[in-house]
Design a protein that fits this description.
By secondary structure, the protein is of the alpha/beta class. 33% of the residues lie in helices and 21% in strands. It is globular, with a radius of gyration of 17 Å. Bound molecules: tricarbonodiimidic diamide. Tricarbonodiimidic diamide is lined by residues 24, 29, 36, 39, 72, 132, 157-158, 161-162, 187.
Length: 221
């Protein structure tokens, strides 16, 4: 067992039973002209975490531990996109509409791809998900169970939307989860800060948080 200094107390990480889940590091959220920008967000903030996410991927790859990448995406006919999701708000472009990187949030379009710097390599698990949470309407739980995974390390975007939703889904399914503080980002700094606080509050009501350097030091020894 590896002890990782974390909030609200050290995270116990079982080697070989721990998976990294990198949430939605897609052009659609991080680059101009994608879904995140269409929602009115300043996407520039999100790119800053890419080197840390890449270092986290290197750590898990060096160890040979399970790596999962998720993409928020919808089928080209949008049959997996509830009208409530597509029609929410008054954006200039909606899910499925043409954008600068292809149709917004549609599977297989250039904008739906994961950024090259943190892209999956052969052997890693890729999950396309229609919701904010990665367990909803995906095979993720079965895949983790087949591998005997009990602990999850989280990174990706955005902290309070898809990352937190997935951590809460994981919590209810019995996983212990650690969020890497500098490998996640939000369009709203105050929402990121509040999310980190609320995850670790109440004795770790959702899970644990720690900076990447603490995790790396503990894992590499
Ligand atoms: N809008 C926003 O903050 N996030 C999303 O819509 N999806 C994810 O977080 N991936």
């Amino acid at each position: 067992m590896i002890q990782v200094p974390a909030k609200p107390y050290p995270f116990t990480l079982p080697p070989g039973r721990t998976a990294l889940i990198v949430i939605d590091m897609q052009r659609d959220f991080v680059e101009p002209g994608g879904f995140g920008a269409a929602l009115g967000n300043d996407v520039a903030r999100l790119g800053a975490i890419v080197p840390t996410v890449a270092a986290l991927l290197r750590l898990f790859r060096d160890k040979g531990w399970t790596v999962v990448h998720t993409r928020e995406s919808h089928l080209p006919d949008l049959s997996d996109c509830p009208p409530a999701k597509r029609l929410r708000g008054d954006p200039p472009q909606r899910i499925g509409d043409p954008g600068a990187m292809g149709r917004l949030l549609v599977r297989g379009e250039p904008g739906n791809a994961i950024l090259d710097a943190v892209a999956p390599v052969p052997g890693e698990i890729e999950i396309d998900k229609p919701g904010k949470g990665a367990f909803y309407a995906t095979p993720l739980q079965d895949i983790l169970a087949e591998r005997g995974i009990t602990h999850l390390v989280f990174a990706g975007v955005t902290t309070e939307v898809c990352v937190q939703t997935t951590m809460r889904e994981a919590n209810d399914r019995g996983y212990d989860s650690l969020l890497v503080e500098d490998a996640t980002e939000s369009y709203f700094p105050q929402f990121k800060a509040a999310t980190l606080d609320m995850i670790a509050a109440q004795g770790g009501i959702v899970g644990w948080t720690t900076p990447f350097a603490e995790l790396e030091r503990a894992v590499r020894g």
